[in-house]
Amino acid sequence: MPAITGEKYLERIDNLHSNVWVDGKPVQEKISEHAAFKGVMKSQAKLFDMQYDPSLIDIMTYTSPLSKERVGMSYLQPKTKEDLVKRRTMTQQWALSSNGMMGRSPDYMNTVIMALASSAPYLEDKDNCFPERLVAFYEYARENDLSLTHSFVNPQVNRAQFYLEDMDEEPIAAKVINKTEEGIIVRGARLLATRGGITDEIIVFSAGGIQDKANGFAFSIPSNQKGLKFICRESFVGGDSTFNYPLSSRYEEMDSIVIFDDVLVPWERVFYYDNLLVSNTFATKSSFLPFSIHQAISRQIVKTEFVLGLVQAIIDSINIGEYLHVQEKTSEIIIALETLKALVIKAEVEAKLDEWGIMRPDLKTLQVASTIFPKVYARFSEIIQQISGSGIMTIPTEKTFQSELREDLEHYLQSKADDGNSRVKLFRLAWELTMSAFGTREVQYERYFFGDPVKLSSQLYHTYKREPYVERVRDFLSEE
After folding, report:
1. Nearest alpha carbon to residue 128 among 240, 251, 276, 231
2. How many beta carbons lie within 10 A of that of residue 203, not counting itself?
3. Residue 259 pairs with which residues in a beta bridge?
4. Which residues contact 151 (CB under 8 A, 6 or more apart)?
5. Quick check: bond before 192 cis, omega within 30?
6. DSSP for 163-182?
7. Helix, strand or coil for residue 270?
8. Is residue 281 within 8 Å of residue 136, measured between CB atoms?
9. What is the gyration radius of the CA atoms in the chain, in angstroms?
């Protein structure tokens, strides 16, 4: 069936031989065996395998309207509120596999391409727009269970409100430099392709703020397209040991700069280009925001549950539950968790069919959730550090426990509820989630998941209908 297995995913990505650079060196071996990628690729492969679990097949897949085969539920175009629940259930089932640590699990970009294709009619009869190509690619991705990365952001050169590159200089931000019979030619760079080089394709999409139409486009190309290069940041994988590095050894999602060195994008893969209005409005006019935020908050709920479980495990281990400040801090996490759950359900209950017959979750509700999580997640990290105290630093390695020192460690590092080995494993998890390179990246990642939190709040302020409440106040004041 079109839904693939983990083995198929690994085989496909290895066979691409994409141009990926880590620490100044090109990846020459199978990328699934490279130290920077093998953990997360193995974890992603497990997600694909879940589609073949008989007990999960109806959660993870549905019947394709085109091929009548089983395809990933994340591609489902929801027509009812029940469909939205199905999508959330699937996302959270996958999120449970990584406890929400894999922010770019396949369902995120599957959701994005589904949302864009569902809004393809917006592109009809507009210059240099090709809605039929967008729909065709969505169907191709669904029927072949593609894994996708993306880039929505230009390099951070000058963040002034009004900035245009010198047209006479070599481009920095990726732009169309030529058009041929075969397609558009793109040169320059884009940020920030998480999982760049370990997916079948990359989608490049202008999400707004475009001032030069040459920088505005939407397309998808294979990750091994000629002239395409992924330059990775330093890997945050601490090592292979799941004792020492329980999270990064499994879930470290590499981030990369994407370089386009005169890359040909075939016309059949160009969804729009050279249209300033569409480049600046499609992200907001389409169902991109409601569906992508719905997916993200659904995952973040699972991540919050994991944080709560970790905090309570620490409390139980060292017996600090009687302290009021510990109870208060834990309640902060509970409040955040229940708030996020309520907001997602509210967004589904208040969902409405859009003009193209797609059931959209309520955007305003989801925007509220998306402004809450960046703040509370940073606070979660602080809470874990505060309740852990010195325990988060007295964390010998696995090899130390395997040495002649084990008897000492078991005796001196035991806690009320755990032996020395189990206690250190617990606190190493707390350390990696909050104090390691992996953990601090997680805070920054969640903080800017949908962009600048201040701008997100400003957008909510400007779009939220407050007038009825003002009118109520005015009516009250006018009463005799």
Report:
1. 276
2. 24
3. 189, 229
4. 174, 190, 191, 192, 193, 202, 203, 204, 205, 258
5. yes
6. ----TTSPPSB-EEEEE-SS
7. strand
8. no
9. 24
pLDDT over threshold 90, residue 480? no
So what's the pLDDT on residue 158? 60
Least confident of 173-177, 211-215, 321-325, 412-416: 211-215
Three-state secondary-structure class, residue 297: helix
Mean pLDDT (the chain, rounded): 95
How many beta carbons lie within 10 A of that of residue 466, not counting itself?
8
Whole-number pLDDT of residue 207: 82
Encoded amino acid at 343, one letter: L
Report the DSSP pairing between strands 217-222 and 270-273: antiparallel
Instruction: Name the phi and psi angles at 276, rounded to 5.
Output: -65, -40
End-to-end CA distance of the chain: 71
Give me the mean pLDDT over the 60-74 stretch. 97
Residue pair 147/154 in contact (Cβ under 8 Å)? The answer is: no
**Tokens standing for 327?**
């109870």
pLDDT value of position 157 = 64
CA distance 275 to 40: 37
| Distance from C-alpha of 154 to C-alpha of 176, rounded to nearest angstrom | 14
Cα separation, 358 vs 365, whole angstroms: 18
Location of structure tokens 């925007």: 367
**Mean pLDDT of the 264-293 span:** 96
Could you give the CA distance from residue 312 to residue 293 in angstroms, rounded to a whole number? 28
Sorted by sequence, the CB contacts under 8 Å of residue 1 that are 6+ apart come out as 61, 69, 70, 71
Retrieve residue 284's tokens: 């907001």
CA distance 306 to 377: 12
For the segment 178-203, the average pLDDT, to the nearest whole number, is 96
| Alpha carbon 293 to chain centroid, angstroms | 10
- The number of helices, as runs of H, and strands, as runs of E, in the chain is 17, 14
3-state helix, strand, coil in the chain (%, to 5): 50, 15, 35
At 87-140, the pLDDT tens digits run 999 999 999 999 999 999 999 999 999 999 999 999 999 999 999 999 999 999
Instruction: Retrieve residue 415's tokens.
Output: 């806690």
Name the residue among 145, 132, 279 with its Cα closest to residue 210.
279
Beta strand pairing call for 183-194 and 228-232: unpaired
- Given a contact cutoff of 8 angstroms between Cβ atoms, the answer to whether 394 and 427 are in contact is yes
Instruction: Give Cβ neighbours of residue 164 (< 8 Å, ≥ 6 apart).
Output: 211, 212
pLDDT band of 166, cuts 50, 70, 90:
low
Amino acid code (one letter) for 350: E
* Order of strands, sheet of 228-232, starting from the edge strand that comes earlier in the sequence: 25-26, 20-22, 228-232, 255-266, 183-194, 175-179
Per-residue pLDDT tens over the stretch 381-401? 999 999 999 999 999 999 999
